[in-house]
Amino acid sequence: MPVDLSVISEASLSPVNGVRLGYAEAAIKKPGKKDLLVISLEPGSRVAGVFTLNRFCAAPVLVCKEHLGKQSDIRALVVNTGNANAGTGEQGLARAHQTCEEVARLLGLMPNQVLPFSTGVIMEPLPIDRVIAGLPACIAKLDAANWFNAAQAIMTTDTAPKAASRKVTIGGKLITITGIAKGAGMIHPNMATMLGFVATDAALSQSLLESLTKEAANKSFNRITVDGDTSTNDSFIVIATGKAGGDEIVNAASAEYTQLKQAITELSIELAQAIIRDGEGATKFMTVTVAGGKSEDESASVAFAIAHSPLVKTAFFASDPNLGRILAAIGYAGIDDLDVSKISLYLDDVLVVENGGRAVNYREEDGQRVMKQSEITIRVELNRGAVTETVWTCDFSYDYVKINADYRS
Amino acid sequence: MPVDLSVISEASLSPVNGVRLGYAEAAIKKPGKKDLLVISLEPGSRVAGVFTLNRFCAAPVLVCKEHLGKQSDIRALVVNTGNANAGTGEQGLARAHQTCEEVARLLGLMPNQVLPFSTGVIMEPLPIDRVIAGLPACIAKLDAANWFNAAQAIMTTDTAPKAASRKVTIGGKLITITGIAKGAGMIHPNMATMLGFVATDAALSQSLLESLTKEAANKSFNRITVDGDTSTNDSFIVIATGKAGGDEIVNAASAEYTQLKQAITELSIELAQAIIRDGEGATKFMTVTVAGGKSEDESASVAFAIAHSPLVKTAFFASDPNLGRILAAIGYAGIDDLDVSKISLYLDDVLVVENGGRAVNYREEDGQRVMKQSEITIRVELNRGAVTETVWTCDFSYDYVKINADYRS
User: Is any Cβ of chain A less than 8 angstroms from the Cβ of B105?
Assistant: First the structure.
């Protein structure tokens, strides 16, 4: 059961000028499910991406990096679900290349103008014949209005499609931003991956697009965790088609760049949060904010220590204010010179810990009241610097174990 | 249900010359349970310890470090269960000191000759009146034959006492080593801690005892994980009374030192494994061995990445060979220049992965057969160096969530 995951309507998703999407049921996942997606971009579009740091990264991730590294004119993306093409060695790499070649052939492009993505079972060969057989149907369906279908086509164990749109006026032009994402838990049984694709019709330089992509990822998809397992296939792509007709943004200090970055970051946060709301077995959506750190790394590491702790997550599942567990997680987050006597801890507006110990006026019933909510903010004040970082996570329930243990039994 | 945890008999535990133990039912945990222990050491005993790296370490850990740091002549240890005296601020520190003062007064020692230990609920005040009221009974019961009772007295949610003895002839003298430990999961609900106490009647210099303690901990208690949560109270103490009558071991290169270190390390591994066998909700005991790393850190980090992964642990609970999850964990273990094409993976004697991909002759039924066992070895070959490290862990079951979520509901 997702936690307050908003229902996306097809009508709420705006087409992005210069982007068309086509999907197919290629029987890669199971018959009768959309599982193949092609995204076609007009000439002149710019594309940037960030990818999993997992050394066992999947073949398509390697190919994406190769094709983006050449700064070629990317014109298409192809995504399959049902198979991650990870842990598949040389054969996997060959099949990722073959997928690009086939898309290129059908669209009249060079293979290195195509980026491939896969999500699904690890260590099984990519059924390349089914991928190739499904591609013509994708291309026949290419349409700017297909964002909702595209969000469905990249789902694996997601219980609902994840997508969002917004419009913002930048430099006097109305700009559209639309994105889709998938992921439910970092990996279901052996399903791998978070995927996110965001497109805008704004125009900006390749170097700014790359900076923006990194910064947006860092505040959104890099700030969520279900179980701390980093997938082999995680990919986040931002596309700027430039078709809205405004001047190209080339100055990182400009108001236009700041506005665009903020809008794309906010949309990315919405998509990232949707992944957590749909987290495997999730019953609670938790925002973990750590303030007063000396650096981004420091505040984020404390927030992730809390968000990863199975003990913290099971306590939230039970609505049981065993809040010493949060202190323990802060303590092992890796800050060597942490002065614990300066730490405060809040659950929403309830002060639980002050000066590193139980707050004088804290009453367990107040903690319990907050913990019973479906959305909870944990706020830690380190009181050693000025940097605040936020991470989103979900609780850890029987259903997480059930979903991850019972898959094939 | 512990996994193949051997039943300890009182008769199997040998007294250590120079060590006496006394316990009491002090109603700190609940009435009618042993929850307070005093260990008294003859003059001339040496003591060394290693402690949690958690910055939110408990008050007794701070006091232990202070008293050991002064190199004073430690003559007594005092342990309570039922309350961790962690997250308790200045008051907690005062109460840990007060406990030492009272033990010192009763035994005619200086307070800094006493080491305090606590395990139990975090963030609750230590009930110092009950501790003080219980101490005379502990001291009245001091006896060299009380190791089994002592193992019971330090239990929290452990389902069985954990203790072991061995005898070894070193330098022509028969040496006794006996130890006890507690812990079941790193932390039950908000119960904190792993504690381990090992005593020998061998004689060795303070500096060698300190090296030995660190090395033994590093190969035993620092090589286990249930849930990756580092407790606030973890402590491991080695005592050498010197009462066996042999010459003092002063040379780290001597055969005597090597023999003693090996014997204490083996006994510590046995105790550490007992904690995992009794892990919260454990149904499987897993040995994770990583060979071919360039350094101890590198091999251990890969082993811990596997042992911490909730996805790996739930797959083992289900006996489901989703072995791509192990590859994913290897990939995010933090080795930047890892060449995944050199990696092999075995489940017991079954080759699952070779050259970074599914082994040609691997059949899923072979993986499944091994995974159904209650004890399983996961062996990874990195093929980049000569260092092998081993970590022990358990699987992740419904009962882990139940134990950690249902405590107070």
Answer: no
A240 half-sphere exposure, CB direction, 13 A CA radius: 27
| pLDDT given at position B126 | 96
Chain A to chain B Cβ contacts (< 8 Å): 229
**Secondary structure class of B391 (helix, strand, coil):** strand
Q: Partners of B78 in the beta sheet? A: B38, B116
Contact A49, A109 (CB under 8 A): no
How far from the centroid of its chain's Cα atoms is residue B407's Cα? Answer: 23
Q: Say what the pLDDT of residue A123 is.
A: 83
Does the CB of A191 have a partner CB in chain B at under 8 Å?
no
As a whole-number percent, the residues of chain A with pLDDT over 70 amount to 94
CA proximity to A190, closest of B25, B333, B312 = B312
Q: Which residues of A touch B310 (CB under 8 A)?
A: 227-229, 310, 400, 404
Evaluated on CA atoms A266, A234, A293, B85, the torsion sign reads positive
User: Does the beta carbon of A363 lie under 8 angstroms from any beta carbon of chain B?
Assistant: no
In whole angstroms, give the CA distance from residue B241 to residue B264. 14
A300 interfaces chain B, CB cutoff of 8 Å: no
B290: amino acid identity, one letter: V
Chain B residues 341-360 with a CB less than 8 Å from chain A = 341, 353, 355-358
Are the C-beta atoms of residues B379 and B291 closer than 8 Å to each other?
Answer: yes
Alpha helices, DSSP H only, in B173-244?
206-219
Q: Which two tokens stand for residue B142?
A: 């001091």
- pLDDT, residue A159, reads 87
Give the nearest chain B residue to A193 (CA atoms).
B328
The fold of B285-405 is Ubiquitin-like (UB roll) (3.10.20)
Q: What are phi and psi of B280, to 5 degrees?
A: -60, 115
Q: Give A140-158 pLDDT, tens digit per residue.
A: 999 999 999 999 999 988 8
Of A56, A186, A355, the CB nearest to B327: A56
Assign B189 a pLDDT band (cuts: 50, 70, 90).
Answer: very low
Domain residue spans of chain B? 10-277, 285-405
Which CB contacts under 8 angstroms, 24+ apart, belong to A332-339?
A332/A305, A332/B53, A332/B54, A332/B55, A332/B56, A332/B229, A332/B230, A333/A301, A333/A302, A333/A304, A333/A305, A333/A306, A334/A301, A334/A305, A335/A298, A335/A301, A335/A302, A335/A382, A335/B55, A336/B55, A338/A382, A338/A384, A338/B55, A339/A384
Contacting residues of A for B88, CB less than 8 Å apart: 357-358
**Beta bridge partners of residue B354, listed in sequence order:** B357
To which CATH superfamily is domain A10-277 assigned? Answer: L-amino peptidase D-ALA esterase/amidase (3.60.70.12)
Q: In this predicted model, what pLDDT tens digit does every residue of A80-139 receive, in sequence order?
A: 999 999 888 889 999 999 999 999 999 999 999 999 999 988 888 999 999 999 999 999
Q: Does A57 touch chain B (CB under 8 A)?
A: yes
Q: Which of A175, A161, A139 is nearest to A23 (CA)?
A: A139
Tokens read off for A141: 């369906």
Residue in B53, B229, B231 to test binding to A, most A beta-carbons within 10 Å: B229
User: Are B10-277 and B285-405 the same fold in CATH?
Assistant: no
For the annotated catalytic residues of A, the residue numbers are 193
| Selected catalytic residue, list B81, B99, B178, B193 | B193
Asked if A331's CB is within 8 angstroms of B54's CB, the reply is yes
B314 is catalytic: no
Beta strands in B42-113 (DSSP E): 46-51, 76-83
ipTM reported for the complex surpasses 0.90? no
pLDDT higher than 70, residue B399: yes
Between residues B71 and B145, which one has the greater pLDDT? B145
- Pull the structure tokens for residue A217: 């990822």
When mean pLDDT is compared across B174-183, B249-258, B322-331, the lowest value belongs to B322-331
Q: What is the pTM of this model?
A: 0.82
